[in-house]
Amino acid sequence: KKIYKIAVIRGDGIGPEIIDEAIKVLDSVCAKEDFELRYEDYLMGGVAYDFKGTPLPDETIEGCLKSDAVLFGAIGGEKWDTLPREFRPETGLLKLRKALGLFANLRPTAIFDELLDASTLKPEVLKGVDLLVVRELIGGIYFGEPRGNDGFKGYNTMVYTKPEIERIAHMAFESAMKRRKMVCSVDKANVLEVSQLWRDTVIEVSKAYPEVTLSHMYVDNAAMQLVRNPRQFDVILTGNIFGDILSDEASMISGSIGLLPSASIGGKIGLFEPIHGSAPDIAGQGIANPLATILSASMMLRFALGETKAADRIELAIKKVLHDGYRTKDLANYGAKEVCSTTQIGSIIADYT
Amino acid sequence: KKIYKIAVIRGDGIGPEIIDEAIKVLDSVCAKEDFELRYEDYLMGGVAYDFKGTPLPDETIEGCLKSDAVLFGAIGGEKWDTLPREFRPETGLLKLRKALGLFANLRPTAIFDELLDASTLKPEVLKGVDLLVVRELIGGIYFGEPRGNDGFKGYNTMVYTKPEIERIAHMAFESAMKRRKMVCSVDKANVLEVSQLWRDTVIEVSKAYPEVTLSHMYVDNAAMQLVRNPRQFDVILTGNIFGDILSDEASMISGSIGLLPSASIGGKIGLFEPIHGSAPDIAGQGIANPLATILSASMMLRFALGETKAADRIELAIKKVLHDGYRTKDLANYGAKEVCSTTQIGSIIADYT
Ligand SMILES: CC(C)[C@H](C(=O)O)[C@@H](O)C(=O)O
Ligand SMILES: CC(C)[C@H](C(=O)O)[C@@H](O)C(=O)O
C-alpha cells in the first residue's frame, strides 16, 4: 500500500475549516483506492507570525521539502496588514513559493452549469468557457531587484531572463497540448522591454509545438476580452503580476470563485490551494465554502501523486453534490435544495466519493 | 467672439474618419454658441513615421504647445508593430503625453440605458454604474529607468516619487468632490514597495478632503470587483499600468466601448481622445463609430475651453440620437431603428445640437 506524506498548511481566516473538509474527503477516497496519506501540519501566514514571530518558519520549508505535496488553505487578514513587509502573511507565501521553486501557477477556470447564474455575466457568454491561466510565479516584479521605498521614492523591478520565460512557456504549451491546443501569451510589449523579451522568447519556444496555435495580446486588451468573450481562450500564458490580475478577473467571471482550485508546480513538490482568500470576516462561523479546497486536493492527487482514480472520484462527487442541490451559504441563491454548513457539505462529498 | 486654437491629430486606422465627424459636430455648436475654433493638423503615430520617419515629429509637440487643446483620434496598426520601439506609433503617443505634462488620464465609464444590452454583464448589475478611473499617465513602469532588453534579460522599473503621487491623488479627490465623494485607491501594497509609498501618500493627501471617503483595494481584487459589482465604485485612483488594465476592463463592462471618451490633463494644455484604438481592420469602410470621439470633443469644450453650453449641446444630441434609434454598425443589434454610416451619424448629431 502506497503511503504519501502531505504537508498541510491551514493558515489564517477560513483556512483551517476548509482544510478540515478537504482532509475528510481525502481520507474517504484513500480508503476506497487503497493508499494512505500521512499529514503533517505546518505554520505559515499570520498564525505563524503570532506563534513564531515570522510568517514562514524554517521548519515549514523543511517540512514541505520532505513531503510529496503541500495542501494549503489561505492566509492573511487585516490584523497583520500594518506590520512591516517582512512580517506580513503574504511575504511568507511568496518566500515559500520561491523556496519550493514553484515557478508555474495553474489556474483553471471552468464553468459549472449549475452555477451559471452565479456569474454577473450573461449565461450565453459563459456557457462552455474552459480556460487555464498559466502564471509565472517566482519572477517578475514580485521578486525583481532593485526594490525599495525610502519614503520619497518607491520602486520595483519587473525583470525576466530568457530561461525563466522558456520554462513557463514550455509549461503552457504542454498544457495546451492536453487541451484545445491554443496559447494566448499576454504582455505589454508595445511599452515594456521586459515584455518584448517575453514575446520573442515565447515565439521561439512555440517552434517546438507546431500543433499549438500561438497568439499574443496586450494585457489591457486581455482584461477586456475576458469580459467580452471568455470562450475565445484556451491557455493564457503570462507573467507574475499580469497573471495575478487576469486570473482573479477570470475567476470572478466564472461566477464559481468559491469552487476554483489552483496548482503551483515546477519545483520538486507541488502546492495546491484554492484561489480565494482567507475571508477573515466569515471565519469560524461554519459557512465557508470548502469546494475550492476539496478540488485543490483532487488536483494534488492527480498531478502530484498520480492517483487519478481518487482524483476522479472527488470531481464526480462534487458534480453530483452540485447537481443534487447542496449549496453552502454563498451559493444559496443558485439552485439550492439544501443549504449546508462547511462541515455538512464536506461530509456529503466524502459520502459521494 | 472668442477664438480657440485646436491641434488636431488624426493618426492611423479609423482616426481620420472619426475626427472628421467630431469636427463636423464642433463646427455646428460653435456657430450656435458664438465662438470659433481654428484647427491645425499635426502628424503622430504610424502616419508620422511613414511621412517623417518618426512617430512624433517636433512640430507636433510645438504645435500642441501653442494650442488651447489637442483633439486626438487613434494610432497604431500591425504594419508598424515590428519596428524598433523608438519608431512605433505608441512611442509617439507616450512621448507626447510626457512632453505635454499630461499626468492625469480621466476615463469616465457611464452606462447609456439604450445600450445596456450591449454589455456581456447582466443589466441589473450594470444599471446605474457611473465610475471614473483617474490614471497616472506619465510615471510608473511606462517611463521608469533603468529599462532594457539585451536578449537575455529584460527589465523595467516601476517607480513613483511622492510628488508624483500627490498631484494625481489631488486630482482624484477633487474629481470625487464633484461626484459621489468616494475614492478607491488601487495598488499592490502587499507585494510592492512602490505601492506602499503610493498608499501612504494617498492617505496623507486624503486628509485635505475630509468629506471624501477613501478606500484601498489590491489590483487583483479590483479586477474582480469591477466584474462582481461595478456600482460600488465612484472614483478609482491608480498608477499607469494598473490604470491601463482596469480602465479597459471597466470600459468593456459598460458595453459602451464605442462611446467612451477620455481626457488627459495636468499640463498646460489637455488632450482629448476616445478610449478605443485605431481599428485598422475597419478603417476606410465608413462603419467606424465616431461617438466616443465626439464625446471627447465635448469633454474638450467643457474642461479645456470652459464652453459648457456647447459641451452640453453635444451630450444632449448624443442622448437624443441614441434614444431615436440611430446606430452605427457595431451597435446595430442594440435598439437600432436605423443603421448609419460614420458620416451619417455625425451629420445627425450635428443637426441635433
Ligand atoms: C496574497 C498575494 C501575495 C498573492 C499574490 O499576489 O500572488 C495572491 O493574490 C495570489 O494570487 O495568490
Ligand atoms: C497605446 C498604448 C501605449 C496606450 C497605453 O498603454 O497607455 C493605450 O493602451 C492607452 O491606454 O491609451
Automatic annotation (TrEMBL), chains A, B:
Q: Give the family from UniProt.
A: Belongs to the isocitrate and isopropylmalate dehydrogenases family. LeuB type 1 subfamily.
One GO term (biological process): L-leucine biosynthetic process
This entry's comment on the bound cofactor is: Binds 1 Mg(2+) or Mn(2+) ion per subunit.
Positions with a binding annotation for Mg(2+): D220, D244, D248
Enzyme Commission number, as recorded: 1.1.1.85
Q: Which pathway or pathways does this protein act in?
A: Amino-acid biosynthesis; L-leucine biosynthesis; L-leucine from 3-methyl-2-oxobutanoate: step 3/4
Name its species. Answer: Sulfurospirillum halorespirans DSM 13726
Cofactors (names): Mg(2+); Mn(2+)
Q: Where is this site: Important for catalysis?
A: Y142, K188
Q: How does it assemble?
A: Homodimer.
- Specify the protein name: 3-isopropylmalate dehydrogenase
